[in-house]
């Protein structure tokens, strides 16, 4: 029988776990507590405490990193939807947004957006530069970054000018996907630290070039997967570490959205024109076409600028699981789907399924060694329905439902919990373990899209019962690593970003080429696709 941490509990009396469970299952009510001395409620509480002791799961809260020292001078590249959110996570918001949030909070006490922003810690930084190809957004970024008593941020017309400035220590890149790698690579070569949004890259070739540039330069590099700071995910790491689930063979992740905003039909600004937008700079390495406001504001709908569902949403789900299981790049990926809801001229699918295979992966087992091996990661998405489907990690002994809260359900055929199930101490339809980092219940959610992101841990988490922006914590981690000059302090650095990008690009390539894409772990290359084929679909 394999050990795998199953036979002996960690950090307690050393009683074999099997004996502990059998003993717990066989103790009669009256024998344990004395006839008539304890109520059923007390008994149930004792059983609960014993189960928690057996699982030994720790909801550890990591200490906040130190931010002392000189302020880090930040340059913001891109001030669209995500750029504004990142600026607020750093502590800077536009005057209009502040007024809007204060009004919303006054009208609805459950709306915590203003309170979360107003009470977050000072990250000890200065925004010294902004760069956006749309004049209106550039002026908004300057207004957000202007602090009384300090010079306003300088507007740089190009990112190259910003990277050449001695007044910039680090850059935050929140541009369309096709600009992520060129800007991040140039920043690394210029010795500027980088925080870049997902998908980390847009093409296979630039993924390798960016990794090399970051490794050679020694800069601090962080990819924007802020769920790594969410308390439920930190707790889930311990669930995996303690082998509570047994061997996990199937992962189910999902996207369900059903409104224009969720389908990237973003508003087109009424001041957008060739006179206010540097169209050539926006295009970059994309095909040269005449000015098109829809392409500019709704760029996620076209392959030359984005990676569709892969880069926008699959990457979050993949990285959420990778930070728990550390399974890395899949051996193969296959995807399918189509444009079935939003027939508006877009190129990327709005219904999409992706299956990633990890045939040699194992999370540990409660059965004999060698019986269980292999993992399938499944992503299923539609932009035409918003029914909530949870993220599930399905193991031989239990299933974990993972979001901003966490639930673990024992499997009816579990080996580890067989005796507990047989004695009705636990039931398959009742959580064996539940974790909610909020001590005050739920928060007011203002839209279906906000609810979607909140459930995946992408909006906020809790520290000691206080709601905190998870992006704020992720950027704090990056800034602390910069101050200490320790690249290993970041939780989503270049190696994690490389795995995220390659996995997402494999999914895109599978859809575009219509076949399974395979990965060679030794050479770190896709092995059944030629450079010519990747070039034909714009992914070389």
Q: What's the number of extended β-strand segments?
A: 18
Question: What form results from the Cα inertia axes?
Answer: globular
Instruction: Specify the helix fraction band.
Output: 25-40%
CATH superfamily of the largest domain: NAD(P)-binding Rossmann-like Domain
Brief summary of the model shown:
With 540 residues, the chain is of the alpha/beta class. The protein has 2 domains: 56 residues, no CATH class; 476 residues, NAD(P)-binding Rossmann-like Domain (Rossmann fold, 3-Layer(aba) Sandwich).
Any overview of this molecule?
The radius of gyration is 25 Å and the shape is globular. The protein has 2 domains: 1-56, no CATH class; 65-540, Rossmann fold (3-Layer(aba) Sandwich). The chain contains 19 helices and 18 strands. The strands form 3 sheets. A 10-stranded mixed β-sheet has the order 14-13-12-11-7-10-9-8-17-18. The protein has a 6-stranded parallel β-sheet with strand order 3-2-1-4-5-6, with helices on both faces. The chain starts with 16 loop residues before the first helix and ends with a helix. The longest helix has 20 residues, at 494-513. The protein has helices at 17-26, 29-33, 40-55, 81-90, 95-107, 113-118, 135-145, 159-164, 180-189, 204-217, 231-241, 279-283, 293-297, 308-325, 418-422, 448-455, 470-484, 494-513, 531-536; strands spanning 72-77, 125-131, 154-155, 170-173, 193-196, 221-223, 248-256, 332-338, 351-358, 375-382, 391-395, 398-402, 406-410, 433-435, 460-463, 466-469, 517-520, 525-526. It is α/β, with parallel strands linked by helices.
């Amino acid at each position: 029988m394999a050990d795998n941490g199953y036979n002996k509990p960690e950090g307690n009396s050393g009683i074999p776990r099997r004996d502990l469970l059998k003993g717990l299952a066989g103790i009669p009510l009256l024998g344990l507590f004395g006839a008539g001395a304890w109520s059923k409620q007390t008994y149930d509480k004792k059983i609960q405490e014993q189960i928690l002791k057996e699982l030994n799961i720790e909801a550890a809260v990591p200490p906040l990193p130190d931010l002392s020292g000189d302020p880090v001078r930040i340059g913001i590249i891109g001030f669209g939807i995500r750029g504004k959110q990142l600026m607020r996570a750093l502590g800077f918001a536009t005057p209009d947004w502040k007024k809007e949030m204060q009004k919303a909070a006054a009208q609805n006490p459950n709306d915590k957006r203003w309170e979360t922003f107003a009470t977050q810690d000072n990250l000890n930084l200065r925004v010294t530069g902004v760069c956006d190809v749309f004049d209106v957004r550039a002026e908004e970024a300057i207004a957000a970054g202007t602090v009384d008593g300090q010079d306003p941020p300088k507007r740089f017309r190009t990112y190259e000018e910003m990277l050449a400035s001695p007044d910039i220590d680090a850059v935050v890149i929140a541009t369309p996907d096709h600009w992520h790698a060129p800007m991040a690579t140039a920043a690394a070569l210029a010795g500027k630290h980088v925080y870049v949004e997902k998908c980390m890259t847009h093409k296979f070739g630039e993924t390798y070039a960016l990794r090399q540039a970051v490794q050679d330069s020694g800069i601090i590099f962080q990819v924007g997967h802020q769920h790594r700071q969410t308390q439920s995910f930190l707790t889930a790491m311990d669930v995996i570490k303690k082998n509570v689930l047994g061997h996990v063979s199937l992962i189910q992740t999902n996207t369900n959205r059903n409104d224009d905003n969720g389908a990237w039909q973003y508003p087109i600004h009424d001041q957008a024109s060739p006179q206010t937008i540097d169209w050539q700079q926006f295009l970059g390495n994309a095909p040269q076409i005449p000015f098109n406001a829809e392409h500019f504001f709704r760029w996620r709908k076209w392959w030359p600028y984005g990676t569709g569902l892969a880069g926008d949403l699959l990457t979050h789900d993949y990285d959420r699981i990778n930070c728990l299981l550390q399974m890395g790049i899949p051996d193969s990926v296959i995807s399918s789907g189509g444009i079935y809801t939003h027939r508006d001229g877009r190129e990327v699918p709005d219904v999409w399924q992706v299956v990633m295979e990890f045939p040699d992966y194992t999370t540990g087992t409660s059965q004999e060694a060698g019986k269980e091996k292999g993992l399938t990661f499944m992503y299923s998405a539609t932009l035409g329905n918003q029914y909530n489907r949870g993220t599930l990690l399905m193991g031989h002994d239990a299933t974990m439902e993972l979001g901003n809260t966490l639930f673990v359900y024992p499997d009816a055929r579990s080996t580890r919990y067989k005796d507990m199930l047989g004695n009705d101490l636990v039931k398959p339809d009742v959580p064996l373990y539940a974790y909610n980092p909020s001590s005050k219940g739920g928060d007011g959610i203002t839209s279906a899209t906000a609810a979607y992101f909140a459930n995946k841990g992408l909006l906020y988490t809790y520290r000691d019962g206080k709601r905190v922006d998870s992006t704020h914590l992720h950027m704090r981690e990056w800034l602390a690593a910069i101050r200490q000059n320790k690249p290993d302090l970041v939780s989503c650095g270049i190696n994690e970003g490389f795995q995220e990008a390659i996995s997402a690009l494999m999914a895109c390539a599978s859809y575009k080429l219509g076949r399974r894409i395979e990965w060679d772990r030794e050479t770190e290359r896709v092995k059944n696709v030629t450079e010519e084929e990747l070039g034909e679909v714009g992914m070389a």
